[in-house]
Design brief:
This protein has about 230 residues and is mainly α. Helices cover about 75% and strands about 0% of the residues. The chain has helices at about 5-30, 40-50, 60-80, 85-110, 115-140, 150-155, 170-190, 195-215, 215-220, 225.
Length: about 230
């Protein structure tokens, strides 16, 4: 990975964190209390449903988990044949296509039918699985783009108050804020405008990340010369 790009990479991953907040707002508020990015939530929901909670859908949660795993599987295979930025670039391109499909589905079939909801869960789940697999390959600390539990744990456990070095506290705070902003924006659009508008916002953000990755592509391939800059 080129040494000149860590700050750029952090901005891209934070943007994808905003995307996560947006799509999970759409899925939870518009697709029947299910997450397409936060798989921990779905596993917990399955436990609640098994205990007798009737407002949660076992089918929706299982569909989301299966779709996410499919996307992560595809991202994992891609990671075996591409370098770090290549994985992220190609996974983001596929993610953009899938989110675009979700925009079309939400504007046509919508979530009013079971078929429409399940299709949206599948498409968005695959997209987020791809994103997570690509980001996992990069391994940027505290910028998983999906799971904030370890980020918050690190913020407290690694802080100077806990006797730690307090490394990158601002980045941890910004990561949490990015998810919050995404959830707020997605929730506002989902609740007060339309699902397709929230998904369009997610698409614009993903396309922005893809554009930056494409723009930096020649430098990714510059080899040893880049490392010596």
């Amino acid at each position: 990975m080129a040494e000149t790009k860590p700050r750029d990479l952090a901005v891209l991953l934070l943007t994808l964190t905003v995307v996560t907040g947006v799509v999970d707002a759409v899925s939870f508020l518009g697709l029947g209390r299910v997450f397409v990015a936060n798989m921990t939530g779905n596993v917990v929901f399955l436990g609640f449903a098994a205990a007798g909670e009737t407002t949660l859908s076992v089918v929706a949660s299982l569909t989301a988990v299966a779709a996410f795993l499919l996307g992560a599987l595809a991202g994992g295979r891609l990671a075996r044949v591409e370098e770090d930025h290549g994985v992220l670039r190609k996974a983001t391109a596929a993610q953009a296509l899938l989110v675009a499909v979700a925009v079309v589905l939400s504007a046509t079939l919508g979530s009013g039918t079971r078929l429409g909801s399940e299709l949206l869960i599948v498409v968005l789940g695959v997209a987020m699985g791809l994103q997570n697999a690509a980001v996992r390959r990069i391994g940027a600390p505290d910028l998983t783009t999906t799971v904030l539990t370890m980020t918050l744990t690190g913020f407290a456990a690694d802080s100077k108050a806990a006797g730690g070095e307090g490394s990158h506290p601002l980045r941890k705070v910004v990561a949490v804020a990015a998810m919050l902003v995404g959830a707020f924006a997605g929730g506002m659009l989902q609740l007060h405008v339309a699902m397709w508008s929230a998904l369009t916002l997610a698409l614009v953000l993903v396309l922005g990340v893809l554009a930056v990755l494409q723009w930096n592509r020649p430098r990714d391939r510059s080899g040893p010369a880049a490392d010596g800059e």
